[in-house]
Amino acid sequence: MEKWNQCRLNDHAIVTMGQSPNSKNYTNNQTDKILVQGNADLYKNKVLKRVFTTEITKTAIKNDILISVRAPVGDIARNQYESVVIGRGIASIKGNDFLYYQLEKMKNSGFWNKYIAGSTFESITGKDLKNAKIYTTNSDEERKIGNIFSSLTNIIQLQEHKIDSLKKLKQFLLQNMFI
């Protein structure tokens, strides 16, 4: 087991703060670029295709970590598309699964609460995000830890899918029981 080090997020990974396109360029056309503006565009740790744009400002590529920097701060997802446009409520981070789950832990433990500014609309600054302290170790150990959490996430998702299917079956049976 290697020694763990603490460093600033920006010293370990490339962090890109989003920049919103002009709203006149927003569309419903699914052939345009997907726009990820904030946590409303993140669902179950993936990007939702909700809004599109013809203007490309800042982008995130496939497998980038996306983090919400506005209410609520800290929600995360992996970008599953080749490229998306990121608005000012999102930052993208080039990082491995180890970093992804560390950011998830930071969100769940309330880490971002000390940085939140704004009384009506909570947010954190790019400086706060980039200066956030994270842990690192050697890449092999990070890969192994990331794989463990990734496997657990997959098992949880499979079980959630099974539960949803059973609920639908129950609903169907109840509806057809007294016909």
Describe the structure.
This protein has 179 residues and is of the alpha+beta class. It contains 4 helices and 13 strands. A hairpin with a 7-residue loop joins strand 9 and strand 10 (76-78).
- Report on the biggest sheet: 5 strands, mixed
Order of helices and strands: EHEEEEEEEEEEEHHEH
The share of residues in extended strands comes to: 15-25%
SS element count, helices: 4
Shape: globular
Radius of gyration: 19 Å
Can you give the helix content as a percent range?
A: 25-40%
Distance separating the two termini: 63 Å
- Give the low-pLDDT segments: none
The largest sheet has its strands arranged as 3-7-4-11-8
Q: Structural class, judged by helices and strands?
A: alpha+beta
Features:
179 residues, four-stranded antiparallel sheet, 13 strands, five-stranded mixed sheet, 24% strand, alpha+beta, 4 helices, 34% helix
How is the topology of this model organized?
Blueprint: E1 5-8, H1 9-12, E2 15-17, E3 26-27, E4 33-36, E5 42-43, E6 46-47, E7 51-53, E8 58-61, E9 65-68, E10 76-78, E11 83-86, E12 90-93, H2 97-108, H3 126-131, E13 133-136, H4 139-177
Parallel strand pairs: 4-11
Antiparallel strand pairs: 1-13, 2-12, 3-7, 4-7, 5-6, 8-11, 9-10, 9-12
Helix pairs in contact: 2-4
